[in-house]
């Protein structure tokens, strides 16, 4: 039986000086989950705002997936329109902070554009979406639940991206030979409610931590496989107290 080919697309971040400084960690986690289930997965990283160049960089797939923060949502819509025009009858799904924080508006204004919308944490629901796709029974919205233990997630599929990270940020003779760095997450969530941030919509003001052993294994993997020795932690609240990390804040 032919494997379903999933193509995840990282939109261009034209507002960044270095387009690929921040590796698409969320898409790499989703890719790792799907690879574990036997799906054929690719990640296309777009680094230009020129619509004409996008199709050259997006492989043919059976289903396409995008993830957007609010700053990227308009670009994701443009990408979806290009796919609608040139990769007809291929479903397009979207997830991420923006659709999670404002699902009703997305459904009202753009519901016709998306075949399925993944709300909340995606790792627990992405396989359900793919199975429904295989049965031709995609739903409009899927609501993911928080993983009880982040240690159960497979390591991000870094082998699917060519460029692991941007320029290194701490110059030292031991770490400058290959000039590689990457992003890593040791926890998810934040107890605070900053008005400009979608974290509370995604993580429900709860913080979950990976174990020290699990983080060590990822760091060692990056060193052994990619020669990476510099890491940027992307935690929403890296300095939160231990009590905040294990308990919801009322």
Describe the 3D structure.
The chain has 250 residues and is α/β, with parallel strands linked by helices. The chain has nine helices and ten strands. The protein has helices at residues 25-36, 51-57, 70-86, 97-101, 103-110, 126-134, 199-203, 212-226, 242-246, and strands at residues 5-10, 40-45, 63-67, 92-95, 116-119, 141-143, 182-184, 187-188, 208-209, 231-233. The strands form three sheets. The chain has a six-stranded parallel β-sheet, sandwiched between helices. Strand 1, helix 1 (25-36) and strand 2 (40-45) form a beta-alpha-beta unit. It is globular, with a radius of gyration of 18 Å. The termini are far apart.
Tell me the layout of helices and strands.
Layout: E1 5-10, H1 25-36, E2 40-45, H2 51-57, E3 63-67, H3 70-86, E4 92-95, H4 97-101, H5 103-110, E5 116-119, H6 126-134, E6 141-143, E7 182-184, E8 187-188, H7 199-203, E9 208-209, H8 212-226, E10 231-233, H9 242-246
Parallel strand pairs: 1-2, 1-3, 3-4, 4-5, 5-6, 7-10
Antiparallel strand pairs: 8-9
Order of helices and strands: EHEHEHEHHEHEEEHEHEH
Global structural class: alpha/beta
Give, in spatial order, the strands making up the sheet with the most strands. Answer: 2-1-3-4-5-6
Strand content: 15-25%
What is the CA-based Rg, rounded? 18 Å
Separation, N- and C-terminal Cα atoms: 49 Å
Total DSSP helices = 9
Judging from the principal axes of the Cα atoms, what is the shape? globular
Oligomer: single chain
Largest sheet: 6 strands, parallel
The number of strands is 10
pLDDT averaged over residues:
88
Helix-residue proportion: 25-40%
Low-confidence stretches: 243-250
């Amino acid at each position: 039986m032919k494997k379903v080919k999933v193509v995840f697309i990282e939109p261009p971040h034209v507002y960044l000086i270095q387009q690929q400084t921040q590796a698409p960690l969320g898409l790499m986690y989703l890719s790792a989950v799907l690879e574990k289930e036997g799906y054929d997965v690719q990640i296309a990283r777009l680094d230009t705002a020129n619509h004409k160049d996008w199709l050259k960089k997006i492989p043919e797939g059976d289903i396409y997936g995008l993830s957007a923060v609010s700053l990227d949502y308009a670009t994701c819509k443009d990408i979806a329109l290009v796919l609608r025009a040139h990769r007809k009858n291929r479903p397009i799904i979207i997830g991420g902070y923006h659709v999670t924080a404002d699902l009703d508006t997305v459904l009202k204004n753009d519901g016709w554009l998306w075949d399925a919308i993944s709300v909340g944490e995606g790792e627990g629901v992405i396989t359900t979406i793919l199975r429904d796709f295989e049965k031709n029974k995609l739903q409009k919205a899927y609501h993911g639940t928080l993983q009880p233990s982040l240690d159960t997630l497979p390591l991000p599929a870094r082998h699917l991206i060519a460029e692991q990270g941007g320029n290194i940020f701490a110059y030292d003779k031991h770490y400058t030979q290959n000039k590689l760095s990457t992003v890593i997450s040791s926890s998810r969530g934040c107890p605070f409610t900053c008005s400009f941030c979608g974290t509370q919509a995604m993580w429900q003001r709860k913080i979950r931590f990976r174990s020290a052993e699990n983080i060590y294994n990822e760091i060692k993997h990056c060193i052994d496989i990619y020669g990476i020795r510099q890491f940027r932690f992307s935690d929403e609240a890296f300095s939160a107290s231990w009590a905040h990390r294990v308990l919801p804040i009322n």
